[in-house]
Amino acid sequence: MDEKIEEKWSELTLLPEWEEELCQVYRVKKHGKWVMLKCLKPEYRNIKEYETLLEKEFDARYNLAHPNIVMINDFETIPELGHCIITDNVYGESLREIINKRSITPDLLAKIQTQLPDALAYIQQNHIVHRPLRSEMIMITEEAKNIKLIDVGFDQLNKLKTQDCLEDIYNYGIILKEVLSILPTRLPHLKHIADRCTDTNPKRRYHDVQEVRLAIERRSSNSIYIAIISFIVAMSILLGWLNSRRAPQKVDNPTEQTENTTTNTADNPVKQ
After folding, report:
1. 31 and 8 in contact (C-beta within 8 Å)?
2. What long-range pairs does 181-188 form, CB within 8 A, spacing at least 24?
3. Which residues in 121-170 belong to E strands, given as ranges?
4. Does the pLDDT value for residue 233 go beyond 90?
5. Are strands 92-94 and 72-78 parallel, antiparallel or unpaired?
6. DSSP 272
7. Closest Cα partner for 145 from 204, 91, 64?
8. In angstroms, rounded to a whole number, what is the distance separating the alpha carbons of residues 67 and 147?
9. CB neighbours (10 Å) of residue 26?
10. Per-residue confidence band for 5, with pLDDT thresholds at 50, 70 and 90
11. 249 confidence band (pLDDT: 50, 70, 90)
12. Do the beta carbons of residue 176 and residue 194 sit within 8 Å?
């Protein structure tokens, strides 16, 4: 690299554990700030078919904006590496590494129940075609310990197939089972959710990510419906009572009523 390029890019480090079939990932400083870049492996560079795939991935992911999905910043050409997708720095440990070390914390377990389904729901709402969810593509950031999905999509469609959405639920259940298997305590509620996500009969699985989130929150769409109906019935009864004759009558002038009562008593003394 020439002097100007070296001033912009420094401390380039290959991350072998992030290697993909066609691409490799680096951690590097851009103007002194850590970022990450993804480029084609040397044997695939300058081949139109693969260059088009990289550009399509950039186009699909560039407009995504979710706190638990790695953000793409730019698409640049870097000498010796070719075209690169530039992303935020999400360097940390993968969920796979943490599972292997058996070091799941209560805080991380809570984020697996909330942040991960939220990210999946966002991906599905935006019709992003993505590779199967695996613990290797779930990063836990080094400082904030938040979940970040990497490599979330390579194309965007008008609508995802139902099978794609169900596959997300199945893979989420697999990950949840892995996590639960290394915890020192049994969590029957979460185990039930994981079992239903991975049921051998797809018809018995959750129908969408929203249903999974409701189950995690110990609710169901049916109970919410019942709560709404109960509220409407209660309000109808209250309004009916307020409008009925049994409701307290309004006193327009309490003083006048008191005076009339006193006068009537004087005019009609009670016989002894």
Report:
1. yes
2. 182/99, 182/102, 182/104, 183/104, 183/109
3. 128-129, 138-141, 147-149, 155-156
4. no
5. unpaired
6. -
7. 91
8. 9
9. 19
10. low
11. low
12. yes
Structure-token pair, residue 104: 């799941």
Asked if residue 73 lies in contact with residue 115, where contact means CB atoms within 8 angstroms, the answer is no
The two three-digit tokens of residue 222, written as one number: 């049916």
The strand pairing partners of 29, in sequence order, are: 10, 34
- For residue 9, list its beta bridge partners: 30
- Burial zone of 61 (CB within 10 Å; 0-12 exposed, 13-18 middle, 19+ buried): buried
CA Rg, the chain, in Å? 31
pTM (2 d.p.): 0.73
Q: For residues 154 and 52, what is the distance between their CA atoms, to the nearest angstrom? A: 11
What percentage of the chain reaches a pLDDT higher than 70? Answer: 81
pLDDT surpassing 90 at residue 38: yes
Length of the chain equals: 272
Quickly list H helices, the chain. 3-8, 48-62, 95-101, 106-125, 162-181, 188-197, 209-216, 221-242, 254-267
Each residue's pLDDT tens digit, 72-127: 999 999 988 999 999 998 878 999 999 999 999 999 999 999 999 999 999 999 98
- The pair of three-digit structure tokens given for residue 212, joined into one six-digit string: 């999974």
pLDDT digit string, tens, across residues 179-215: 999 999 999 999 999 999 999 998 899 999 999 999 9
Where b means 16+ CB within 10 Å and e means fewer, 68-106 reads bbbebeebbebeebbbbbbbbbbbbbbbbebbeeeebee
Q: In sequence order, which residues have a C-beta less than 8 Å from that of residue 156 and are 6 or more positions away?
A: 59, 60, 126, 127, 128, 129
Look at residue 228 in the predicted model and tell me its pLDDT: 56
